[in-house]
Amino acid sequence: IGNGISGDGALVLARTDGSDVKQRGGATSFSLFLVTKEGNPGYTPGTQLEKMGLKASDTAELFFSDVQIPAANLIGEEGRGLEYVKAMLPQGRLAVAAAAVVVAETVLDQTLDYVAQRNAFGERIADFQNTRFQLADLQTGLEAAQRYLAAQVEGFNAGQLDLVGASKAKLHASEFAKKCVDICLQLHGGYGYILEYPVAQAYLAVRLLTIFGGTSEVLKETIAQELLAGSAPNSR
């Protein structure tokens, strides 16, 4: 859980209908609660987990033993927890897409400055055709990601953002950011492998973007389900 150690509490999705993993209750099996550390000695964060990147955010498992939750800490209505979580998925995925676009843009700008100043074999890195072609591809991809993200943000502001649109935005932006940072690190050469350089730090951090908020594989499944909805079954 992000901020599992430093946080004063957590939003917990818990089964409230008596079902368990084997019984697999329905969509109304879950409720959402605010669980706080204060007054709950059984609320215990685990050891801080060591991550590849994003060191500023602590991550830890949370353990609950005989934790008492006041009725007032129920979020919304009982049995609607899963519904509430799903309702927030589009906004969460849009936020990850926005982060991905910002990371890609920032790293690309830093790389443009680097290749314009760094020399190899008597020439600027920026003067080699391979560099120029790589940068042209990345800039084109960045602008495509920015424009699609902007369209989804407009939909969100109008109250029209749906899960599929947000999933497309996150899928494209996060996968592009991962590719962009990888290529930019390569253009830095050996310096790109040194953590002192921002591109190396970005390389470690950007890897999370295709995982949290829904993995790329989950997003593809979400998108495919809409594409195939209503399609006639294969007759063969």
Describe the structure.
There is one protein chain. By secondary structure, the chain is mainly alpha-helical. It is 48% helix and 11% strand. It has five helices and seven strands. A three-stranded antiparallel beta sheet has the order 1-2-5. α1 (81-117) runs parallel beside α3 and α2 (129-157) packs antiparallel against α3. The chain starts with 8 loop residues before the first strand and ends in an 8-residue tail after the last helix. The model has no long low-confidence stretch (mean pLDDT 93).
* Average residue-wise pLDDT: 93
Structural class, please? mainly alpha
Output the radius of gyration: 22 Å
Helix content: 40-55%
Largest beta sheet: what is the strand line-up? 1-2-5
Number of strands: 7
Compressed to H and E, one letter per element, the order equals: EEEEEHEEHHHH
Give the N-terminus to C-terminus distance in angstroms: 47 Å
Q: Characterize the biggest β-sheet.
A: 3 strands, antiparallel
Total helical elements = 5
**What are the segments in which pLDDT stays under 50 over at least 5 consecutive residues?**
none
Give the strand content. Answer: 5-15%
The shape, in one word, is globular
In short:
Helix content is 48%, strand content 11%.
How are the elements arranged and paired?
Layout: E1 9-15, E2 30-36, E3 43-45, E4 62-64, E5 74-75, H1 81-117, E6 119-120, E7 123-124, H2 129-157, H3 163-187, H4 198-206, H5 216-228
Antiparallel strand pairs: 1-2, 2-5, 3-4, 6-7
Helix pairs in contact: 1-2, 1-3, 1-4, 2-3, 3-4, 3-5
